[in-house]
Design brief:
globular, 6 helices, 3 domains, single chain, Jelly Rolls, about 375 residues, alpha+beta
């Protein structure tokens, strides 16, 4: 028999009322005294909540079956979170550590491909710790570009990514240097030994569980990134090395060294970032985000550069210019209507992690 309380909540409509009440509670994030209170940032804040709600509904209502997982792109141009990388294609799927899984597909020509199993506790306002990892440099890949990877607690020969008793998700990161000319990896995830079984039909229990999970994810995840953004305020207009352990705890790629900080510029100011040396690396990139830690609109504005797209100085150094108007430099980062927000620099697969020096200047000096 089913859960009578879930059935009753569906019959009397309280399941929907509780969902709507939770949404109203989540909206208090935008009204919090620590969040920016101008109309522009508040508008982005409310849009951010709708985006995170969609992410939660997809994760907990539509694609939550760990026995029949679907590898999907859940973070993209209209769902953004946690300084999402504009050079990335993010894919994920839920896992049950009691199952074994197989990823099959083709490698493509994307510059970087990394796959990790994680213990994702974002919906509880906690961490996302890596439990197993493999990137394409260490994969056995067929001459035709084919890939087969096993995900399990028990070690396997060939391409294998460990799981633990805490594992509940697989994440795939594809990082492009040249999106126009690189082909993405095409991957499919299957549970091993399903023997033609099919998911059980939708039910009141699945609805109640999915709506609750979605709003819990919305509230806890947005609050977590809000705290992170607030913590960056102390480093305004500088770009220090981030706490790498903290970044890994929140799901960062083990091959990435992060710099996170906060930027704020008056109308007549610009921020110049410079790395005197560019180390040997898989790639690197820099991006500008809003206060909510969403990457800015990279479809219609130039808000990031990477190893392939950036212009280099004659001595091999690289400078990036953040300003409200075009300074005439090829590495101009547009603020896209923003006066402040967060920012992120990544050294990816780098041999060393040199400092990035930041200085505020008058825009007229550029």
């Amino acid at each position: 028999m089913g859960d009578v309380s879930a059935e009753q909540k569906v019959l009397d409509g309280s399941v929907w009322e509780e969902f709507c009440d939770s949404l109203k509670e989540a909206g208090k994030l935008v009204d919090s005294e620590d969040a920016p209170q101008d109309a522009f940032n508040r508008a982005e804040g409310y849009r951010y909540l709708t985006r995170m709600l969609r992410a939660g509904l997809e994760s907990f209502l539509e694609y939550s079956d760990r026995d029949f997982p679907v590898l999907r792109c859940g973070c993209h141009t209209t769902i953004k979170m946690g300084a999402d990388n504009p050079d990335n294609r993010y894919e994920s799927a839920p896992l049950n550590p009691d199952n074994d899984y197989r990823i099959v597909g083709t490698r493509g020509t994307v510059d970087y491909l990394g796959i990790s199993t994680v213990a994702n506790l974002y919906s509880q306002g906690k961490s996302m710790e890596t439990t197993g990892f493999l990137d394409s440099r260490d994969m056995e890949i067929g001459e035709d570009g084919s890939i087969e990877i096993i995900l399990s607690k028990r070690e396997h020969a060939g391409n294998w990514i460990p799981m633990t008793d805490e594992t509940n998700q697989v994440n795939v990161r594809q990082t492009f240097q040249d999106r126009i000319n690189e082909a993405q990896a095409e991957l499919r995830l299957d549970r091993i030994g399903d023997q033609g079984a099919r998911p059980t039909p939708f039910s009141p229990e699945k609805l109640a569980r999915g709506l609750t999970g979605a709003t819990r994810f919305l509230g806890n995840t947005t609050s977590m990134f809000k705290r992170w953004s607030q913590d960056m305020l102390k480093d305004e207009n500088t770009l220090p090395h981030a706490d790498q352990g903290f970044c890994q705890m929140l799901g960062g790629d083990p091959n990435i060294h992060y710099f996170h900080s906060y930027w704020k510029l008056a109308e007549d100011e610009a921020l110049v970032l410079e790395s005197a040396t560019v180390p040997e690396c898989q790639t690197w990139n820099f991006q500008l985000d809003n206060w909510w830690m969403e990457s800015l609109d990279y479809v219609n504005h130039t808000i990031h550069f990477n190893k392939h797209t950036a212009h280099y100085e004659p001595d091999g150094s690289v400078k990036v210019y953040i300003s409200h108007t075009d300074p005439g430099h090829p590495n101009w980062i547009e603020t896209a209507g923003h006066l402040d927000g967060t920012m992120c620099w990544r050294w990816i697969g780098a041999s060393e992690h040199p400092d990035v020096v930041a200085r505020v200047v008058k825009a007229s000096e550029l």
